Amino acid sequence: MSRPRVVAIDGTAGAGKSTIARGVAERLDLPYVNTGEMYRALAASAAREGVETDDADGLLALARRLRFRVADGEPPWLEVEGWPTAELHTHRVDLTVSAVSGHPQVREHLRGVQRELGQHGAVMEGRDIGSVVVPDAPVKIFVTASDHVRASRRADQRGSDRTGEIGDALRTRDARDAVTSPLEPAEGAEVLDTSELSVEGSLQAAIDIVRRRAPELIP
Question: Would you say the C-alpha torsion 213, 11, 71, 100 has a positive or negative sign?
Answer without folding.
Answer: positive
